[in-house]
Design a protein that fits this description.
Blueprint lengths: L10 H28 L9 H17 L6 H4 L6 H12 L4 H22 L5 H13 L1 H7 L5 H20 L3 H17 L7 H14 L4 H16 L3 H11 L7 H19 L3 H18 L9 H17 L3 H17 L7 H5 L12 H10 L3 H31 L1 H18 L12 H19 L17
């Protein structure tokens, strides 16, 4: 019998210990999502029909090589990867929306596992808490059952964040390339992150240099990132240049600015409904086109994009700065605080009106909207509001604690949240905070675990690898 020191676990044993909990978490998350799908009759919402139509046209191309490419060649309103994702399922499995959302549930369950892995360095307790939260996170569960880009985007973006975390620990060229390809795939799914690649490039170079790499190796990492992040969107850039004689990703930004941001600012400024503000903006824009003698029906898509953008920016600059600031602040608060359950198809189907259809100030219209809802709707909305309040308190506390122990991680997470809140501006809905769900889930997990330890008189949290380890 050997009484000597125990052997260190092998790489295989370590991998096995990590794989089993990951599989259990994946299975639990998938069951939750499949149960949600089983209770739904409709998987389409705003924009779903557009993605489905483009995917159907792409499926024809796969099948015949002569299909009509439709919106894919005539406009540049959407990034191509999600329609390609749907088209692949339609062509290779079945053209049923149910199968698409089932596949999305599998993808989303993998994202849950990656979110748990993001905080594994902080200790197993926080990792488990983050994984359980992600498995049950209403915003992820609800949107994974809808034909929208959110689930696929979140998968690639979370994988990119995980690759960034591993790059910080051990910078190398392969890891930098992995960050680039994953961020590029996320960008090919949604153009909302088109301003982030330069920031990531600087972060990759700085992280490599900061951990001891030579300036030459740090720049090599940066160049590899720049090349790989471009590859997934290169076909889109080429298509737009060939079709519109201009290099750009999508004209969705001009549509968002004109038909969402500008009406939202006017809604907040005038206390009117969104529909009223939207109609006024649309009428004013069409009047402007007539004044300039522009025939919208024959106007090239890229020219219309420029006109939309210039008209929206001009009108925004004419709005009082206070109105813009209030609109952005209220939009940010709603994007953080609005319960995800309100976006559920069953909740939306239980009433015909919406918060955007109310008049008055934001607090006034919120109370009127809540009080006018059916009793059962009020019950679930109230539970959602209570959960959002608790979650946001835990998130703020988690951010404070993470700032103390991992300041660089806290700063990066806060920067991502601020980026998306500024980007969406006054346009508010629970799904618009889904891109930074990994950050909010991690921060909420940290806050909830610490609250639990406070109740057990065990503070501060003995985080793995922190200077506080062992204190009580």
């Amino acid at each position: 019998m050997n009484f000597g020191p125990a052997k260190a676990p092998s790489d295989y044993q370590l991998a096995s210990r990590q794989t089993a909990p990951a599989l259990i978490l994946f299975a639990a998350a998938l069951i939750v999502r499949l149960l949600n799908i089983a209770t739904l009759d409709e998987f389409f919402t705003e924009d779903s029909t557009l993605y489905w139509r483009i995917a159907g046209q792409l499926s024809q191309i796969f099948a015949t090589a002569h299909g009509d490419t439709g919106e894919w060649t005539r406009s540049a309103e959407r990034m191509p990867l999600y329609p390609l994702f749907i088209a692949a399922i339609q062509s290779w499995i079945t053209p049923e929306p149910l199968v698409v959302v089932i596949v999305q549930s599998i993808v989303d369950s993998a994202t849950v596992v990656m979110i748990a892995m993001l905080v594994s360095s902080l200790g197993p307790t926080i990792g488990i808490a983050a994984g359980v939260l992600a498995a049950l996170w209403p915003n992820m569960v609800i949107n994974s059952a809808l034909v929208l880009t959110d689930t696929l985007f979140l998968f690639f973006f979370t994988a990119c964040l995980l690759a960034c975390l591993r790059f910080v620990r051990r910078p190398n060229a392969a890891a930098a390339a992995m960050i680039g390809i994953l961020l590029g795939l996320a960008l090919a799914t949604r153009a909302a992150i088109q301003f982030l690649p330069p920031v990531f490039f600087l972060a990759v170079v700085f992280a490599a240099w900061r951990t001891g790499s030579s300036p030459k190796k740090a720049m090599i990492c940066g160049v590899l990132f720049a090349v790989t992040v471009t590859l997934p969107v290169l076909p889109t850039l080429y298509r737009n240049y060939e079709r519109f004689d201009r290099v750009f990703l999508t004209d969705q930004g001009s549509i968002h600015l004109l038909y969402w941001v500008l009406p939202s600012v006017r809604m907040h400024a005038d206390g009117t409904t969104f529909d009223t503000a939207w109609s006024e903006v649309r009428r004013s824009f069409h009047d402007e086109l007539k004044r300039k003698g522009v025939d919208r029906s024959t106007l090239a898509s890229v020219k219309l994009r420029d006109l939309r953008q210039s008209f929206a920016i001009e009108n925004l600059t004419n709005q009082p700065l206070s109105s813009i600031a209030i609109a952005w602040t209220q939009g940010g608060v709603l994007n953080l605080a609005a319960p995800a359950v309100l976006a559920d198809q069953r909740m939306r189907g239980s009433r015909r009106d919406s918060l955007l259809g109310m008049t008055g100030g934001m607090i006034e219209r919120t109370f009127v909207w809540y009080s006018s809802g059916p009793v059962l709707w009020q019950l679930f909305a109230g539970l959602g509001i209570a959960g959002a309040i608790i979650g946001n308190i835990a998130m703020v506390w988690g951010l404070i604690r993470l700032t103390i122990v991992r300041p660089w991680m806290a700063a990066a997470g806060a920067a991502l949240i601020i980026y998306f809140l500024l980007l969406m501006g006054p346009v508010a809905a629970p799904k618009y905070r889904l891109p930074f769900a990994p950050v909010t889930i991690v921060l909420t997990a940290v806050g909830l675990v610490e609250f639990w330890l406070l109740l057990k008189n065990r503070v501060p949290l003995p985080w793995k690898g922190s200077s506080e380890k062992g204190k009580s």
